[in-house]
Amino acid sequence: MLKLEDSDIHLWYADQAEFNVPELEENCINSLTDQETDRYQRYTSEQRRKQFLLGRMLIRKTLSQYVELPPAAWKLVANDYGKPNIEIAGKDHALFFNLSHSGDRLVLAIANNESIGVDIEARNKPRRLPKVADRYFSPTEVADLFALPEVEQLSRFYDLWTLKEAYIKACGLGLAISLQHFSYSFPSDRRILVDFSDERNDDAAQWQFWLIDPGGPFKMGLAIKSGLNKITKIQSRKYLALEEIITIDTDIVRD
Ligand SMILES: CC(C)(COP(=O)(O)OP(=O)(O)OC[C@H]1O[C@@H](n2cnc3c(N)ncnc32)[C@H](O)[C@@H]1OP(=O)(O)O)[C@@H](O)C(=O)NCCC(=O)NCCS
């Protein structure tokens, strides 16, 4: 069994191309809850169906790396905003996770802390920057973004996007949190600073953020409300197949 300290985050990656639907169905379909089966059957896009099934397989198989329970034993229940968590009988294991997918790639972040959020996005997808930035970013983020040379703007845009998503996913509230109510800034020393507005009423000292290069054409933001138990180690692994896992480097770009 793997051990997860309070000061650890473990990241688990998978690429859809390495898996096929019949294999996933055979391994995972019986462990889905009724709610999950219903969702799976309602997806019409083949890509989304596979992504969903692979995500659920990844979550259950990975949780079973930490606790001696078969993957099918994990009951996952979403909160009112869609964040799935383990329904824990008797609170005997404090394991928490958050999943993100973009295109072919999935990432799962595991910690002993419920307030964990991760977001992966394709880094080169063109965007109508002024329009989208005005809509989703705070005024200071927009000003800093457009003060950059044009060639750097798309990269900053996805840094902001993934970090903002990681925070709202860590809170478990999704877009019920106004994206204008918190702002990131990026000093030259590789740090990430956050500023919460009075409306958001959160405390920057409680949080840790990372921009991590997950390899390939992706950007990734990671957030955790670690409080006094600061995270000091992030480990990464990748599923090459259902039973084949390798350890990979964690490439921290900023923290
Ligand atoms: C649903 C949301 C939480 C994340 O959406 P997303 O970035 O498109 O999707 P991701 O792949 O990163 O994450 C999806 C996974 O997060 C989890 N999730 C769902 N709701 C969640 C929530 N409220 N909090 C945390 N995690 C959540 C689920 O595991 C989901 O996977 P599943 O659909 O296979 O069950 C929400 O933030 C959203 O709708 N965002 C839309 C994108 C947007 O406009 N962002 C503005 C960015 S600046």
Automatic annotation (TrEMBL):
GO cellular component: cytosol
Alphabetical list of InterPro entries matching this protein: 4-PPantetheinyl_Trfase_dom, 4-PPantetheinyl_Trfase_dom_sf, AASDHPPT_N, P-Pant_transferase_sf
UniProt domain 4'-phosphopantetheinyl transferase N-terminal: residue ranges: 28-109
Pfam families linked to this entry: AASDHPPT_N (PF22624), ACPS (PF01648)
A GO BP annotation: lysine biosynthetic process via aminoadipic acid
UniProt keywords, alphabetically: Transferase
Domain 4'-phosphopantetheinyl transferase: residue ranges: 115-211
GO molecular function: holo-[acyl-carrier-protein] synthase activity; magnesium ion binding
Assigned protein family: Belongs to the P-Pant transferase superfamily. Gsp/Sfp/HetI/AcpT family.
Protein known as: Uncharacterized protein
